[in-house]
Design goal:
This protein is α/β, with parallel strands linked by helices. The protein has 28 helices and 26 strands.
C-alpha cells in the first residue's frame, strides 16, 4: 500500500489527517508528516516523499508538539496590571498598545521605539516580513536581530566582497577532494548555516570513504573531529591567523589559481599583506605549528577540488569577521569559488536573487547611536541595546517589541540587559512563553507555532544546494484565541495610523479586505502573506503558484549546476572584492599587536557547544534529555589538577563580569587552557496565568561574557574565547 492510500485509510477509520509540511526549527528544513485529529498533533514523522531532506529528521522536529501543547504556553494577550497579568482581547491589546506607542513616538520620535527578532521569529517568513512592514511604517531604524549574536560577520563579509548581504554559497561536499571545516560540529548541528546540505554529515563521511581529505579545526574534541583525518586544535578567536598563514604559504609556493586571482579585485593587496606577515607570528597567535600550517596549505591548495567553510565557532568572537573574510579569500585564491567541489551558488527562484534583495532591502550605511556600529541585515548589535536604553538623548530607546527572542539569555552579560529592559516605558513580548527577557513585560502577546502557519522561503531559495521549492503548509490551526504574528503587526500599523510597509494608501485596502473577509467568512480574503508570495511568484520567479499548492512535499524545479555566481555579483565592478578597506585596516592592526598573553586572573578560555536535542535557547522548555546538561563545565585533567578539582565537584566559573556555580566534568576532550559549557540554558520560564514559581534548567554561560568585548566591525560579542577561571565552590 502506498503512502496516500495509508493516509486515506487512516482518515476514514480514525478521523485522523496527515499534513505534509516542513520543520522550521533549523536550516535543514526536514519534510514532516504531521498526523492530527484537528485539535491536537498525534505524532510527527519524516515525510519520505520530500525530495530535498527528511533524513536529518531529529528529536527536535519529532517532539515539536510538546512546545505547541505546553501547559504554560501563552494563549491570549495579557496585560500587566500591578504585579500580575490579566487576559484581554486582541482588540483591546492592539488599541491600547497603539495608543502607548503613538504617545512615545510623539514625545520622543520614531527611533525611541525599537524591535528585536529572535531565531523562532526569523524562521517565520510571515511574521518576519510583517514585522519589517511595521518598522517601515513606523519609520524607526532602532532594529535589533539575533544575527548580531553569531551571524553578522557572514552578512557583512557577503555584502563587502560580493555586493549582497545574502550572497549564499553552498559547500559542494560530494565533489570536494579536501574539506577544511572550521568552527563547526556537523555530526551534531548538521551541515547548515546560511547554506544547506541535506544529510550533509553522512555525505561528508561518504566522500571521506572515497578518499576525500577531511580537516576539522576546533579548539576541542567533538564527535566530528573524531572522524577527521586531521584535527587542528586552534586557539579560540585566532582563526584569522591560521587562515592568513595558509594564504601566505600558498602565495609563497605559487600554489594559487592565477586566473581566479586575476579576475578578482584586491588580490594583490592580500598577497602583499601576507608576504609581510611573519608565519611564526601567525603560528604563535593561533597555537598551530608552522609545519602543520604548511602541510594543510599544501593539502588544500593541491587537491583536485576543495572547500573551506567557516562556521559559527569562527564568527562568535572579536575577530569573527576577519576569520569569515579570510575563509572566502582562501577559497578564491585556490579556485574554490563558484566551482564544482568548492563553494557554489544556487540562483534561487528569481532571475537574480541578490539583485532583487538589494532592491527590496538594500544594505544600510546607518551607524548605531552608541558605538557607531554599522547596521547589518537590517539591525544593530544587540550588545549595544542596554546603552541605547540607558543613554539620554535623541533616539534613546523607550519602547521595545521582542518578537520570539530572548536577548537576556543569548546575548552578552544578560544581567546588564535585564536591568536595562526593566527601565523601558513599554516592553511588549511576542512569544510562546514569558521567558527571562519578558520578566517585566507590560504586554505578552501569544506567538504561533511553526506547525500552525504557512511559510514560503522566497529570498532564502538560494540557501538550498539544489533548486527546491515548497509551500510549507500549516498542519493545524493555531490554538484557540491565538492570532498570527503577521496579523498583530498588520493590525497594529492600521490602528496607529501609519502606512503598513511604508506604502501610502495601503491601510484602507487592508481595512476593506478585512471587512470582506468578515462578511464572506473567508479569512484568506483579508490582506495576508499569501498575497505577497503569490505576487512574487507570478511576477518575478521561475515557479508556478499552482505547482507550489499541488506539491505539498515540495519539488526540485531545476538540476544542481555550477558557474552562476560571478554573473550575479552586485559589486560596483562586477568582480569579487577580495580586500575591502574596512577589513584590510583591521587586519593590518592585528598584525602589529603583541602576541596574546595569558590573563593571570582568568587564564582559561571558554568555548561552547550544543547537543542535537537543543536549538540555542529555543527548546529548553521542552527538550528531552537522557543525561545532565546545562550546568556542566568541562575541563582538562591538567587544569583540574592544578586547581585541586575532581570530576563531579561543584565549582565556580568566574570572568571579569560574573560568576556561575556549576559542576566540573574532567575530560581529555578539551585541551589544557580551554573549558567548555553548553549554551542555550539558564533562562527562567514564568507562569503569568497561574503565578507558580519560575522554572529554570541549567545556567546561562553567556552571563560570563562582557558586553564591551565586541568584534569592532559587527558588534558580535566574544562568546568563543572569553577569559575565565575555575575554583572549588
Amino acid at each position: 500500500m502506498n503512502a496516500p492510500e495509508r493516509i486515506d485509510a487512516e482518515q476514514s477509520t480514525t478521523g485522523l489527517k496527515t499534513v505534509k509540511t516542513t520543520c522550521r526549527i533549523c536550516l535543514c528544513f526536514c519534510g514532516l508528516d504531521v498526523v492530527t485529529d484537528g485539535k491536537k498533533i498525534i505524532r510527527i514523522l519524516p515525510d519520505k516523499e520530500n525530495p530535498n531532506d527528511w533524513r536529518d529528521f531529529c528529536l527536535k522536529g519529532g517532539s515539536a508538539n510538546a512546545l505547541r501543547d505546553h501547559p504554560k504556553r501563552l494563549t491570549s494577550p495579557m496585560k500587566r496590571v500591578g504585579d500580575k497579568y490579566v487576559e484581554v482581547s486582541y482588540e483591546q491589546a492592539i488599541r491600547e498598545i497603539a495608543a502607548q506607542l503613538n504617545d512615545i513616538r510623539k514625545k520622543h520620535g520614531a527611533n525611541a521605539i525599537a524591535t528585536y527578532i529572535g531565531n523562532p521569529g526569523q524562521s517565520s517568513t510571515q511574521g518576519a516580513a510583517f514585522q519589517a512592514g511595521f518598522t517601515a511604517a513606523l519609520g524607526s531604524t532602532s532594529n535589533y536581530t539575533v544575527g548580531s549574536v553569531d551571524q553578522n560577520s557572514f552578512n557583512l563579509v557577503a555584502e563587502q566582497i560580493y555586493g549582497s548581504e545574502m550572497a549564499l554559497l553552498n559547500p559542494d561536499v560530494d565533489h570536494a577532494k579536501c574539506m577544511l571545516l572550521i568552527g563547526m560540529n556537523p555530526a551534531v548541528s548538521y551541515v547548515g548555516w546560511m547554506y544547506q546540505v541535506p544529510e550533509g554529515w553522512n555525505r561528508i563521511l561518504a566522500a571521506q570513504e572515497k578518499g576525500a581529505d577531511l580537516i576539522m579545526v576546533d579548539p576541542r574534541e567533538t564527535p566530528s573531529t573524531r572522524k577527521a583525518k586531521t584535527h587542528v586544535k586552534i586557539r579560540p578567536g585566532e582563526d584569522w591567523a591560521f587562515l592568513l598563514g595558509l594564504i601566505k604559504v600558498i602565495f609563497e609556493r605559487g600554489w594559487e589559481n592565477k586566473q581566479d586571482c586575476a579576475d578578482a579585485s584586491g588580490v594583490d593587496t592580500i598577497k602583499a599583506i601576507a608576504s609581510e606577515a611573519s608565519l611564526q607570528y601567525l603560528s604563535d597567535r593561533c597555537n598551530i605549528a608552522v609545519a602543520q600550517i604548511e602541510d594543510i596549505a599544501r593539502r588544500f591548495s593541491q587537491a583536485e577540488t576543495g572547500v573551506c567553510v567557516a562556521n559559527t565557532g569562527v564568527s562568535m568572537n572579536r575577530n569573527g569577521t576577519l576569520g569569515e573574510w579570510l575563509s572566502h579569500v582562501l577559497n578564491l585564491i585556490c579556485g574554490r569559488t563558484d566551482r564544482k567541489g568548492g563553494r557554489f551558488y544556487n540562483p534561487g527562484i528569481f532571475k537574480n536573487t541578490m539583485q532583487l534583495l538589494n532592491k527590496m532591502a538594500p544594505a544600510s550605511s546607518l551607524r548605531s547611536r552608541i558605538g557607531g556600529y554599522k547596521m547589518i541585515y537590517g539591525g544593530f548589535p544587540i550588545a549595544t541595546l542596554p546603552d541605547e536604553i540607558n543613554t539620554p538623548g535623541e533616539g534613546q530607546v523607550k519602547a521595545l517589541i521582542i518578537n520570539a527572542g530572548n536577548p537576556v539569555a543569548c546575548g552578552a552579560d544578560g544581567a546588564r540587559m535585564a536591568a536595562a529592559l526593566q527601565k523601558l516605558d513599554l516592553l511588549i513580548g511576542i512569544d510562546f512563553f514569558q521567558r527571562e527577557s519578558l520578566q517585566h513585560a507590560h504586554w505578552l502577546i501569544p506567538g504561533t507555532h511553526f506547525l500552525e502557519r504557512d511559510d514560503f522561503f522566497t529570498i532564502l531559495g538560494s540557501l538550498f544546494e539544489r533548486p527546491f521549492a515548497q509551500l510549507a503548509q500549516a498542519a493545524i490551526t493555531p490554538r484557540e484565541g491565538i492570532h498570527h504574528e503577521w496579523e498583530f503587526f498588520r493590525d497594529l500599523s492600521v490602528e496607529m495610523g501609519i502606512p503598513f510597509m511604508g506604502i501610502k494608501g495601503i491601510n484602507p485596502v487592508i481595512r476593506a479586505s478585512r471587512w470582506v473577509a468578515r462578511v464572506t467568512g473567508n479569512p484568506r480574503l483579508a490582506f495576508n502573506p499569501r498575497w505577497i508570495w503569490a505576487l512574487l511568484v507570478k511576477t518575478a520567479s521561475c515557479l508556478k503558484w499552482k505547482d507550489l499548492v499541488n506539491k505539498p512535499s515540495g519539488y526540485f524545479y531545476a538540476e544542481k549546476s555550477y558557474g552562476h555566481f560571478r554573473a550575479a555579483l552586485q559589486t560596483p565592478d562586477g568582480k569579487i572584492q577580495a580586500a575591502p578597506d574596512m577589513f584590510v585596516q583591521i587586519l593590518k592592526q592585528r598584525l602589529t599587536e603583541p602576541l596574546p598573553q595569558t590573563n593571570t586572573d582568568f587564564p582559561l578560555q571558554l568555548v561552547s557547544q550544543r547537543h542535537i536535542s537543543m536549538m540555542n535557547s529555543w527548546l529548553v522548555e521542552t527538550v528531552k534529555r537522557n543525561d545532565r546538561r546545562g550546568d556542566i563545565v568541562e575541563i582538562n585533567p591538567t587544569d583540574a589538577n592544578a586547581r585541586n578539582i575532581v570530576d563531579s565537584q561543584d565549582v565556580l566559573v568566574s570572568s571579569r563580569v560574573s560568576t556561575l556555580k556549576v559542576t566540573a566534568r574532567v575530560t581529555e576532550a578539551v585541551p589544557p587552557g580551554i573549558v567548555s559549557m553548553d549554551h542555550g540554558w539558564g533562562s527562567r520560564l514564568f507562569d503569568p496565568k497561574g503565578g507558580s514559581a519560575p522554572e529554570i534548567q541549567g545556567v546561562n554561560r553567556n552571563q560570563l561574557v562582557a558586553a564591551d568585548e565586541l568584534d569592532e566591525l559587527t558588534g558580535v560579542p566574544n562568546l568563543t574565547g572569553t577569559c575565565v577561571n575555575l575554583r572549588a565552590a
